[in-house]
Amino acid sequence: MSRPSWRERVDAARAQRAATSRVRVRRTVTHRDGARCLVDGRSLLNFCGNDYLGLSQHFAVVGALQDAASREGAGGVGSHLVCGHHQIHDALERELADWLGAPRALLFGSGYLANLAVVQSMLGDEDVCVQDRLNHASLIDAARLSGCRLRRYPHADAEGAIRQLRSMPEGAAMLATDGVFSMDGDIAPLRELALVARVQKALLYVDDAHGVGVVGPDGRGSVAAAKLGVADVPLQLATLGKALGGYGAAVLGDADLIGHLAETARPYVYTTALPPAQAAATLAAVKLARTEHWRRTKLDELTGRFRDRARALGLELMDSQTPIQPVLCGDDARALEMAAALEQAGYWVAAIRPPTVPEGRARLRVTLSALHGVADVDGLVETMAKVRDRIRLGMAATNWREAALVR
What is the CATH number of the domain that holds 307? Predict the structure, then answer.
């Protein structure tokens, strides 16, 4: 028998990751206090989380969690269709639907599960799912696991989307896109994509994990910002673990489609419901997100300030007006070196490398929060510029020495 060794395969894959500066390491947070984290004994200003509105530690959210846990316990105890669906789940679904202007909402354990559920429940072997090339991995995996044919179009290219749909006219079709792209921070051209979907009789599905709470009127997300409704976008995803500061997700949209998901989507039918205490915390967060508009105003101001200061110092930004502000480094090793130097200066910024982003597009993914202050943003930008310059000088010195040796 000549089966390959699993150990050898794993060792070779890790060696390859190490050779290309792509080893991924978990960091352990021992305490959070506002925008600061205690990591490995060092207090760092966190610029890599997704707590955009600063609600994860809000006293009303934490209080709702504690109060519900004291009454209802720590777990969800069963699936929603057996005995796990609590009145707090029902209240949260209704609040989310009312906020985002949808007839109905359905809770899931995570955004990843929600995307698997939607695509698996709606599409089969003879169908097609057309997706933006930079969509989140969960959407790509969802299409592959559903058995449908997956076709991808160039980023934010509505004409590319319609070409892909036209090339496969048989079977049901879904056009799926992120609303706000998690690594680039830009927003999908949803009005153009809605027109493409209408013409091609495709269901438009928008994963708005990074949009809900942050963009659009009253924070209702990228779909509302594009002035679209359920007739245009029959299904959309809202995460509960980013701007809302909790955990889980919800799919919102057409009542019949949501009913279909509730009865047929495997990641919903065959898993335990969110703990009622977690749903209570998110319900409190939604109410804050709907009423405390100053959080989005502050976030917009900090985003503008970051971009203005970064451009003035020559940092290479991308076209993003959201709290996701990538700073391009190009080389994987350089992104890691910059992230390590920033950490030494007290700033926690994630180095994002392929395959999460395309080859040659490694970056520092800066994320802003209403918890940050003006001085925090100014300090980060100034430190990033100094780190960049120091690395450039080091590279220039290395190149000079190598050239001298050659001579």
Answer: 3.90.1150.10
